[in-house]
Amino acid sequence: MEKIFSYDKITLLTRAGLKKNKLILVSDINKSIVEKIFFSVGKTKILKNKTAVFVFLENSTRTKISFEMACNKLGVKVVHFNTSLSSTNKGESLIETLRNIEAMGADLLIIRHGDQLNISELYKLNIPIISAGSESISHPTQALLDLFTLHKEGMVNKNKKLLFLGDISLNRVANSHKNLLKDWGFEIGYSYPKELCLKDTSKELKYFKNKKEALAWADIVMVLRLQSERKNFSSDFLEDYKQKYQLTLKDIETANLKKSDCLKVMHPGPYVEGLDLEKSVTNYEHSFIYKQVKNSVPVRAAIIQSLLQGD
Ligand code: CP
What we know:
Blueprint: E1 22-23, H1 31-40, E2 51-56, H2 62-74, E3 77-80, H3 94-103, E4 108-113, H4 119-123, E5 129-134, H5 140-152, E6 161-165, H6 172-180, E7 187-191, H7 211-217, E8 220-223, H8 235-245, H9 249-256, E9 264-266, H10 289-309
Parallel strand pairs: 1-5, 2-3, 2-4, 4-5, 6-7, 6-8, 8-9
Helix pairs in contact: 2-10, 5-6, 5-10
The protein binds phosphoric acid mono(formamide)ester.
């Protein structure tokens, strides 16, 4: 058994062959560790003499800023890698760049990457790493802060029905949630365009072809963005997508007519106005969207503290 996190007495990890102190996939942590992280949200302390290097190879607003604010909260110094001014432009490989950051003695690497880098290569590095979004596979800290939001709103372990609405095919948040939420008492449903998926998973998942039917079933809907930066979509496809998967206030009002508790709305962000979400939904009384963002700083601070205290 190899140790990944070491937070107080929580030192469990059963996945073989991983280097310690990594949060790249949600399978790098277990339920006890998640509970311990959640317990420490809002109670983090100053960590002395720690430096985090941020390597963001894809665009980010929420994740990058909230990680930096979390580091500020913890007294962790931040150094930013600048791709356009780096020696990757002289032919150095990305993994070699990361090995150099490791050799300089950085205490933590926070990295967002697409297919420039394979996740398995990160596990070979001997430095604590947090994924800030890896390929279309993993976004563990987003999944954790979403789960924390659900926990804070009293939704965990209550047999709530959580619907993912939108494109799951290239969505790293949905992928991380698939592996995380099952341990927390949620029934998960999906409504997504099957034609975007490499294989038909609709029989393995609780799948809804129809948005209205899906929203009538759900207690919570997590709307997902179409990953237009990873794939080109025709204007016909986009129009069809909007009709079938965009969440509007009218959709919510219709669903709420038959519910005892109003539908709760989540979105990991960024949302595309008029495609995956109607703007008015962000002001809906039971939207958790800005609560997710608010929770991102203390949750990420707790995750960083947990990782660095495991040194
Ligand atoms: N949720 C999320 O990852 O947002 P950003 O891409 O803005 O960081």
